[in-house]
Design goal:
240 residues; alpha/beta; Rossmann fold; 8 helices; 7 strands
Length: 240
């Protein structure tokens, strides 16, 4: 059983679909119930098994109840993919210069991106058998500096350290934790959040002639969730 957050669209939806194609029953969690249901319906239409749940990952009660509902239905959590991030234009779109930072923007970014990952691990690990896998979505923004989105980048950098701690804490149980760090992925959320000029700037930074897609991220998440990566833990892998 695989639990995927932020699975209503974009990277999360692609990862949920890929894990279902690999045979996992998938818990599809998203802030919005309608998008979670849409992803789950698409999985079921392809012959997979999925359960949709609305969940704000920054809310411990909602995380606890969502994990409990999935465990009640499927018995355990074999794979956790902590993918949810705050890309709301009212937050991410105002994440600019630090001197003008609205503290509410900083706090909300950390609540979703970092606190959310912690809450998911807190409540999923007790339901995870030995040998389980945890994958965290970080970002290339957590590996470099930039001229804007300091809160987002700092939260993604913190997730890289968090990944190492989770890997260290639960390694004796055979539970692995790794992070994926995509560069710009052309999702609807990215198109809403970034101006055409910023999209062009980020595209110019690529070494390869093609952009990273949600399916590219899903392929790596699938690998990190599988026994094929059984000796890989505490690592952050960039897709750029």
């Amino acid at each position: 059983m695989a639990l995927v957050t932020g699975a209503g669209a974009g990277i999360g939806a692609a990862c949920a679909a890929r894990l279902a194609d690999e045979g996992a029953c998938v818990g599809v969690l998203d802030l919005h119930a309608a998008t979670a249901r849409a992803t789950a319906s698409a999985i079921r239409a392809r012959g997979g098994t999925a359960m949709a749940l609305a969940c704000d990952v920054s809310d411990e009660k909602q995380v606890r109840e969502s994990v409990a509902a999935l465990v009640s239905s499927f018995g355990r959590v074999d794979v956790l993919h902590s993918n949810a991030a705050c890309l709301d234009p009212d937050v991410y779109g105002r994440d600019r210069d630090l001197a003008d930072m609205d503290v509410a923007v900083w706090d909300r970014t950390m609540e979703v991106n970092l606190r959310g990952a912690m809450l998911l691990v807190k409540h999923a690990v007790p339901a995870m058998p030995d040998g389980g896998a945890i994958v965290v979505t970080s970002s290339v923004s957590g590996l470099v500096g930039d001229v804007d989105h300091a809160a987002y980048g700092a939260s993604k950098a913190a997730l890289i350290g968090f990944t190492r701690y989770v890997a260290t804490m639960y390694g004796a149980r055979g539970i692995r934790c790794n992070a994926v760090a995509p560069a710009l992925v052309m999702t609807d959320a990215a198109r809403r959040a970034l101006t055409p000029d910023r999209l062009a700037d980020k595209a110019a930074e690529r070494l390869l002639p093609w952009p990273c897609t949600p399916d590219d991220v899903a392929a790596l998440v699938s690998f990190l969730s599988s026994d094929e990566s059984r000796c890989l833990t505490g690592q952050t892998i960039a897709l750029d």
